[in-house]
Amino acid sequence: MQFKTLFGATVLALSLSACSTVEKVVYRIDVPQGNYLEAATVAQVKEGMSVQQVQYLLGTPVLIDPYNNLTWYYVFLQQRAYEAPEQHTFTVKFDQRGIVTNTHLDKPLPEVASEKENNTIIERTGENTKKSWWKFW
Fold first, then answer.
1. At a CB cut-off of 8 Å and minimum separation 6, what does 91 contact?
2. C-alpha span between 133 and 106 (Å, rounded)
3. What is the total count of domains within the chain?
4. pTM above 0.70, yes or no
């Protein structure tokens, strides 16, 4: 009787401790937050562009300076599975006419592995020249 209790307690203790010591077994997704920034898109923002052009490229900023509406902040926070979160801040400053005067990226953005990664194009390689006997039209 005492053996069953001792054996049960041992199995319970080992099973509980096994869950807490094994790391990275549970799948964790990548979590992007804020404005999704790509290096190629950020590189297109140049001095002399208008407010509409910047907003077309990057979208609505996460933060517009409340005291000076001429400074926009694009914040991109990327947390990959079990890594520490990485934050990138892209600042765009405009003059009174709404023209870009200065841009600043706090740290380089990761490059996209493939240009067609986000824009998948499905192409048909060739038409099937064989026709079935029942398709006469």
1. 71, 72, 73, 74, 102, 103, 104, 105, 106
2. 65
3. 1
4. no
Residue 85 lies in a domain: yes
Could you give the C-alpha distances from 91 to 53, 88, 103, 129, in angstroms and in order? 15, 10, 6, 56
Residue 115 domain flag? no
- Is position 2 within any domain? no
CATH code of the domain covering residue 45: 3.30.1450
The pLDDT tens digits for 100-131 are: 999 999 988 877 665 555 554 445 555 555 65
Q: Which domain holds residue 95?
A: 25-105
Residues paired with residue 31 on neighbouring β-strands, in sequence order:
79
Q: What angle do CA 108, 86, 118 make, to 5 degrees?
A: 70
- Residue 27 is predicted with a pLDDT of 79
Q: Rounded to whole angstroms, how far apart are CA atoms 74 and 102?
A: 14
Q: Residue 114 forms beta bridges with which residues?
A: none
